[in-house]
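User: Show me a protein chain along with its predicted structure.
Assistant: Here is one chain, sequence first, then structure tokens.
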Amino acid sequence: MELQRKINDLKAFFKDKKVIIAFSGGADSTLLASVAKEEAKDALAVTVDNGVMPAEFIKKSEQIAKKIGIKHHTIINNFLKDSKFKINSLNRCYVCKNKIYQKLEEIAFDYHYDFIVDGTNITDLFEDRPGIMVNIEKNIKTPLIKYGFTYKDVRTILRDMNVEYNPSTTCLATRIPPGQMITTKKINRIRYAENLVRNLTGLDVVRVRDNDGIALIEVKNISKLLDKELLNYLDSEFKVVGFKKVTMDIASTDDSGMEMVVYKPCQDKKNRIMLEIKLPYTLNLPETCHALRNLGKVKCSPKLGIAMLEDNGINITIFDKGKIVAQRVKDQKEAQDLLTKVLPYIRRQK
């Protein structure tokens, strides 16, 4: 029932609009494109080939767009020619997304589209993604956040709709630690290594991280790699393309999405629940306070680094270090509903 309400909200959002979908072929943008194709007056899916995406990324994006039946356009813009991107600073994600949406803005302006839509979902706000700031600054619409779609919601809906998507769409630059230069050589060897592991194992999601020439293989099902001959072959092939050493993360990569809330009994109040989470980034408290006024009266003290909000009898305290505490939360559902309401108004530091 709750999922159906979210779907209905999403359909109403697109109804009779002229929209551009930032399209990767991943789960989130595929859901948006599928709904927009049916509900929007005009919907265009745009994929940016930035030179640092996984093998066959563009081909798969085109195939998925074709199955959906939505108009699709690919823009080629090699970010490896941009020194601001290549230096790989902590805000690399912001630089990348800003460049992508500049291109989409040009198309939206030239062809009179109403707005651009981004596939960020509510669960993404628990991760350290500086690029999310671009959505706010450029007024890019994020309906999956607006209507409270979680990672699991999106995949459940796509499964029920029997709609295919590409499970591996993350930028290869994310495999290189911040501060280490992004080069064509590194991207090419990462792309080759991931494609090799994928082809030999049949796994959809493969990550090969490159830390100063040391490869770290991450996969969802590690048992597929536990073969001596296969490992020897991978070691040999990785070193041919420039890796100095090959290692493996023995913990399976989990792409199921984290739980949105962790709640616990308050020590001083029997049968009361307190919600406490810590976001992996610091907050711009003045901007957060300003945004939170959309929900009600906010008490804000930038000097102390806290903002306080009351919502239906629940006291919510937000700290500039990223911590959120709520008292008198009934259960996990109420805690999740509360976070779904509050998180869209959180403003992180760049």
